[in-house]
Structure formats: C-alpha cells, structure tokens
Amino acid sequence: MTREPATANTLRLLTALAVPPDDTATASETVAELRAAVYEIRAFLAQADEHDTQAVPFEVLHRWRNALARSHRALEQTDPDEWSRWRLPGTWLDSHLRLRSLIAHEVGKAYWDDRPEVRYAEIDIDRYLWGAR
C-alpha cells in the first residue's frame, strides 16, 4: 500500500505539535502527566508512520483529547504562574493547546458522523491551526 502524501504530512505535523514540555518547566506532577501524554501520542504516531497506518481510531483521539484537557486544566489551576509562563506563541504549551483544539474538532466530527476512525489524510490541519485562508 502506498501512503497518501497528506498522511505523511499530517503525521509529521501532529508529531511536531506533540512536543514534550520544556526541561525548564516545573517538575510538578501535572507537567509529568503532560509529558507522559505527549510521549504516548508521539509513540503512537511513530508506529503509525512505521506501519503505514492510514487512520487513527476514534477512541485513541478521544483519550488524547481528554488527557491533554485534564492536564492543561490542572496546570492552569494548580500553577497559574507556570501556565502563564508557557502560554505564549511558539512554546510547548502553545503547541499542546493547538493540538488539543485540532483533536477536539476531529473527535467532534467523528462522533457526529458516527465514524470509528479518522483518516490522517482527511485531517485539515492547515484550517485548524492557521485558519482558512
């Protein structure tokens, strides 16, 4: 099977967004949870790339969205200074928030369309990250 170019590009962009928290981030439990969630996402995407997987199961996207949302909420509530420090354009938290937003859109679409999986090639990453131009 040949991979669609959009699949390779989407996998690369999703992996780029799933950047681990900066080493200078606080060593809190919340940041550790974020780091674990991101490493899970990156490992899944690496396997998808290696095995030429064309779609991600709905349940996986849903789990990622929930893990990121839970950890982001906890960080914002328990360490507002750290949240403010990293919630700037170009930081790891900015990447996470963009990734979570993109995943939330895809989870919502898949839910309403009753789709058990989302094809990587169908994720309109440009629209979610930079808006329709």
Write a brief structural summary.
The protein has helices at 5-17, 29-50, 58-78, 80-86, 92-112, 125-130; strands at 55-57, 117-119.
Strands ordered across the widest β-sheet: 1-2
Number of strands: 2
- Rounded to the nearest angstrom, the radius of gyration is 15 Å
SSE string, helices as H and strands as E: HHEHHHEH
Number of helices: 6
Task: Describe it.
With 133 residues, the protein is mainly α. It has helices at 5-17, 29-50, 58-78, 80-86, 92-112, 125-130; strands at residues 55-57, 117-119. It is globular. The N and C termini lie far apart (33 Å).
List keywords for this structure.
133 residues, 6 helices, mainly alpha, two-stranded antiparallel ribbon, 2 strands
Please describe the topology of this protein.
Blueprint: H1 5-17, H2 29-50, E1 55-57, H3 58-78, H4 80-86, H5 92-112, E2 117-119, H6 125-130
Antiparallel strand pairs: 1-2
Helix pairs in contact: 1-2, 2-3, 3-4, 3-5
